[in-house]
From TrEMBL:
Active-site residues, record numbering mapped to chain: 273
Entry-linked SUPFAM superfamilies: ALDH-like
GO molecular function, one term: oxidoreductase activity, acting on the aldehyde or oxo group of donors, NAD or NADP as acceptor
Family, per entry: Belongs to the aldehyde dehydrogenase family.
InterPro entries: Ald_DH/histidinol_DH (IPR016161), Ald_DH_C (IPR016163), Ald_DH_CS_CYS (IPR016160), Ald_DH_CS_GLU (IPR029510), Ald_DH_N (IPR016162), Aldehyde_DH_dom (IPR015590)
Keywords recorded for this protein, A-Z: NAD, Oxidoreductase
Superkingdom in the source lineage: Bacteria
Protein name: Acyl-CoA reductase-like NAD-dependent aldehyde dehydrogenase
Domain Aldehyde dehydrogenase: 29-496
Length: 500
């Protein structure tokens, strides 16, 4: 299957793929300093889509210098909040207007369904820009009625706080939601008056670059948003750069720890959204008509390449057989195919590397004695497709139960009593998300309080909203993105005290 043979590709997508893509630095599209490029591929076919500029440390340095100028001296620094609001809102509107183009480009670069990429990834990215556009005019300090115990009797003071931008923000995003993670990072940062240098994942750089064109079209001053495509070394250069004031990262826990080490030099602020191995707890009194499809969505959405994926499925023992077979049955009916086929529900893994990684976990699970009720192997003989896989007979210590697989694989385990389930659900180094299914509202809230997770969903899964903070307990991260808390990540408080 070639690009030409798939469903109709929008003329603008073809045009975008028709030339090598460059870096966005200081409002200009430029080649990398080395002149080198790297390829990006369609994971449904393994076919090359286009070449992208290979940014490295020198390019990061140029981008940081541009972001610094824009922050200190550019019009951005003097712009009124409502002017920032209008520019950011315009990006949301442009995304909505071009949602079909973004959806197709994301489908080609990442493998996900074009329809989902249009509605969920692009639609939500537009919502994120509009939500944070509104925040531009709502960032407030406070006045404080100070006592000043050591001041002379009768003296008076006017004390207040200002919330100011942090400065130049380095942002490093992964490949599972390339456009959406870019929006989550850039929108709150610029709403708060910062400037950014963003590095997309090497597997999926294209939609971030197309988004870069929208900042130009919306009328942003040069240097406010800079985009440097490249590999991990470019990310490392951002994390270590002495003129970057903050680094925000979404990706593996392993690299998250490297970011923390790299940030030590100038003690830049760090926020991290890392891996997960989230428990999804199904009690016997759950409404199975919603719990079965909901639990399927919990681990299969985005082909399992979701940090929140509910990949440890704990089912109360009295319904374990019935429930796991129902989930396996539903999984076996999922339509697998390329993202550009409108009937596709499950696309390929993003890369050969990710395909190999998931395949290794399938072998390890079977070697550890687990049994696949459905799936357990590659699908087809082209592209990086894996069958949805439901494992039972899983040992709690085996790698399929403990480690993040990041593929369409769930490990189901039975539990026998409400009071014990939180302990097994919390038995993980991660704490990103959790699901609970029950008709008993008290049991649901009791369990929600016991689970060590940044997001808990009751009788639903993947229930995100731009206004709800998102992030992890334990090794799933530092800080919270989305909602008002993201404005906290991108501002710092200054205390001002005036003797009257
Ligand atoms: O992630 P990396 P990978 C998990 C998931 C997946 C595994 C590996 O389990 O199977 O991580 O994926 C940049 N300094 N998640 O290898 O390497 C890299 O270029 C600075 C969970 O793709 O963490 C990319 O832009 N940056 C996750 C980004 O980090 C570095 C999403 C993420 O890549 C760097 C993705 C370095 N030293 C994977 N090395 C989630 N939380 O949603 C690499 N990068």
């Amino acid at each position: 299957m070639t690009l030409a043979a798939t469903a109709p590709v929008h003329a603008d997508v073809r045009e975008f793929l028709g030339r090598n893509r460059q870096l966005l630095i200081d409002g200009e599209w430029v080649d990398s300093a080395s002149g080198r490029t790297f390829p990006t591929y369609d994971p449904a076919t393994g076919e090359k889509l286009t070449e992208v500029a290979h940014g490295q440390a020198e390019d990061v340095h140029r981008a940081v210098a541009a972001a610094r100028r824009a922050f200190e001296d550019g019009p951005w620094a003097r712009m009124k909040p409502n002017q920032r609001e209008q520019l950011i809102w315009r990006v949301g509107d442009l995304l909505t207007a071009k949602a079909e183009i973004f959806g197709q480009l994301e489908a080609l670069d990442n493998g996900k369904s074009a329809g989902i990429a249009q509605v969920v990834d692009t639609g939500w990215a537009a919502d994120v820009f509009r939500y944070y556009a509104g925040w531009s005019t709502k960032i407030e300090g406070s006045t404080v009625d100070v006592s000043m115990p050591f001041a002379p009797e009768g003296s008076q003071f006017h004390a207040y706080t200002l919330r100011e931008p942090v400065g130049v923000c380095g942002q490093i995003v992964p490949w599972n939601f390339p456009l959406l993670m870019t929006a989550w990072k850039i929108a709150p940062a610029i709403a708060a008056g910062n400037t950014v240098v963003l590095k997309p994942a090497e597997q999926t750089p294209l939609t971030a670059l197309l988004l870069g064109e929208l900042f130009e079209e919306a009328g942003f001053p040069p240097g406010v948003v800079n985009i440097v495509t490249g590999y991990g070394d470019a990310g490392a250069a951002i994390a270590a750069h002495d003129d970057v004031d903050k680094v925000a990262f979404t990706g593996s826990t392993e690299v998250g720890k490297l970011i923390v080490d790299a940030a030590r030099g100038n003690l830049k602020k760090v926020s991290l959204e890392l891996g997960g191995k989230s428990p999804n707890v199904v009690f016997a009194d759950a409404d199975l008509d919603i719990a079965v499809p909901g639990s399927l969505n919990a681990w299969l959405f985005n082909h399992g390449q979701c940090c929140v994926a509910g990949t440890r499925l704990y089912v109360e023992d009295t319904i374990f057989e019935e429930f796991t077979h129902a989930v396996a049955d539903a999984a076996s009916q999922v339509k697998i195919g390329p993202g550009l086929d409108p009937s596709t529900q499950l696309g390929p893994m993003v890369s050969q590397e990710q395909f190999d990684r998931v395949s290794r976990y399938l072998s390890e699970g079977i070697a550890d004695g687990a049994r696949a009720l459905t799936g357990g192997k590659r699908w087809g003989d082209e592209g990086y497709f894996i069958e949805p896989t439901v494992f039972v007979d899983c040992k709690p210590e085996s790698s399929i139960v403990r480690e993040e697989i990041f593929g369409p694989v769930v490990a189901a385990l039975p539990f026998s009593a409400e009071h014990g389930v939180a302990a097994v659900a919390n038995d993980s180094e991660y704490g990103l998300a959790a699901g609970i299914w029950t008709r008993d509202i008290s049991k649901a809230h009791r369990t929600a309080r016991q689970l060590k997770a940044g997001s808990v969903w009751i009788n639903q899964y993947n229930g995100f909203d731009t206004a709800m903070p998102f992030g992890g307990f334990k090794q799933s991260g530092w800080g919270r993105e989305l909602g008002a808390e993201a404005i906290g990540l991108y501002t710092q408080t200054k205390s001002v005290n005036v003797a009257l």
